[in-house]
Amino acid sequence: MNSKWKVSLECTAFTADQFPPPEIPEIAVAGRSNVGKSTLINNLLGARLAHVGATPGKTRSVNFFLVEREGVPFRLVDLPGFGYASRSKAERNTWSRLIESYVASRKSLWLVLHLVDFRHGLLENDASLQEWLDGIGLPVFVVFTKGDKIAKGKHLSTRDQFIRKGMKSIDVPIITSGDKGTGIQELRVFIESFLDRQE
């Protein structure tokens, strides 16, 4: 049984100098716009802290959520979604620089949860993200979202098909559904065991 999480929004950063001090372990959540990132984060934290918007690409900042489990803190870090074409090129470039300045130099970043739409698998932007993270030596764990959009009987075969295509993940990806809440407890247990192994 996993421990109780006490959560709060610690910081919303629009520039790198607004990031909090890198003093505790951080797990970042990355994914394409409209992948269901905010919904998954709210389910994972057990609180409506991440803004869920009807417009893809709503998150323009890096949001740091402080999680205390049995008095031991870590941060869940919500990165802006990528790959949404309707934003201006200048705006997209600003976002990518913000993400790069966080991911490439953050000493306290231990893991990136890469959210992937289960209906599509890795799209071109997803593959580029994985190659970049692999190149800078950051571990990645794939979390499939929108699992309820695929018939449950096809879950394992679909997941295995995506893995065979060369998806990078430090463990077998978890299939989640924000609407149904499935896979969330499993993801919490994975995060806790990952953090415990690093200590």
Descriptive overview:
The chain has 199 residues and is α/β, with parallel strands linked by helices. It has one domain: Rossmann fold. The protein is built from five helices and seven strands. The protein has helices at 37-45, 89-103, 124-135, 155-164, 184-198, and strands at 5-13, 26-31, 62-69, 72-78, 109-117, 140-145, 174-175. The radius of gyration is 16 Å and the shape is globular. The chain starts with a strand and ends with a helix.
User: Count the strands?
Assistant: 7
Number of domains: 1
Give the CATH level 1 class. Alpha Beta
Kindly name the structural category. Answer: alpha/beta
Radius of gyration: 16 Å
If you average the pLDDT, what whole number results? 88
General form: globular
CATH architecture label name: 3-Layer(aba) Sandwich
Provide a compact summary of the structure.
Helices cover 31% and strands 24% of the residues.
Write the SSE topology:
Layout: E1 5-13, E2 26-31, H1 37-45, E3 62-69, E4 72-78, H2 89-103, E5 109-117, H3 124-135, E6 140-145, H4 155-164, E7 174-175, H5 184-198
Parallel strand pairs: 2-4, 2-5, 5-6, 6-7
Antiparallel strand pairs: 1-3, 3-4
